Amino acid sequence: MNISNYRVEDKISLPNGNTLEDFNLSEKELEKKLSKTRKKLGDLQNTLYAHDKYAVLICLQGMDTSGKDSLIREVFKDFNVSGVDVISFKSPTGLERGHDYLWRHYIALPARGKFGVFNRTHYENVLVTRVHPNYILDENIPTIKSIEDVNETFWDQRFEQINAFEKNLAQNGTLIFKFYMNLSKEEQKYRLVRRLNKPNKNWKFSPGDLVERKLWDSYMDCYQDAINRTSTPHAPWYIIPADNKPGARLIVASILLQELKKYKDIVEPELGPKIKDHISDYKQQLQNE
After folding, report:
1. pLDDT tens figures, 53-72
2. Residue segments in the chain with a per-residue pLDDT below the cut of 70
3. Which domains, and CATH codes, for the chain?
4. 253-267 residues labelled b (16+ CB within 10 A) or e (exposed)
5. Is the separation of the CB atoms in 88 and 82 below 8 Å?
6. How far apart are CA 204 and CA 209, in angstroms?
7. 198 secondary structure, DSSP code
8. N or C: which end of the chain has fewer CB within 10 A?
9. What are the backbone dihedrals phi and psi of residue 176, each rounded to the nearest 5 degrees, phi first?
10. Which residues fall within 8 angstroms of residue 50, CB to CB, at 6 or more apart?
């Protein structure tokens, strides 16, 4: 797979982006390839955990029904559960509103040796809040007195803060992968209807989904601007065609595997000479019990 096809290195136009990728393979064939890839990812995760020098932060963004939850379930199925943390960010709590908007994301970051998956991320603060700027008033920022203060200068500053946040993480050993699940409006409609038609999926539906769907074009504008402003060499964005779930999962898993394998220093630590030279003695002690 040529993963550079999905990496954002120049300005992108979301309306012209690909939303469907199946590689001319059946669903079963895609799942078989994913199974092999995620097994290798799981092995790599064990090595990363033992190496204990890097953390991996995976950021997932996309419109509702874009497949983020199921992607997390399927891509990380072969991980040791102690080596990966998944955090889903909802509306900020009272405690979280008492801090700056990045605080709750900062305290959820993965430790060295671990993977962290953010299901919705700090980018909600330049997406949802940009579509609904009145939300910013709830943050109690001293310089924001009214909705008129939530202007382009405000957003420019917020993008600078996000870029600085990610640069600091990267410089201190966090490997950052940002995935935008590029779902078509037609496919979202199909998935919402299916959600309503399945009794065991009804709980996922909210009338608010339809309200947000009417703002589709505004969200696309905000996503496009956010991606173009914040895709950097140390924290790149990848645009993942999301209309075909098995294809999307395989792409994400392949990107992670190919990129992480480039770090040749991620190896299991060797035993110190004092222990290594006496391995046979330790074996003998155990056998003689």
Report:
1. 999 999 999 999 999 999 99
2. none
3. 3-287 (3.40.50.300)
4. bbbbbebbeeeeebe
5. no
6. 10
7. -
8. C
9. -110, 130
10. 113, 268, 269
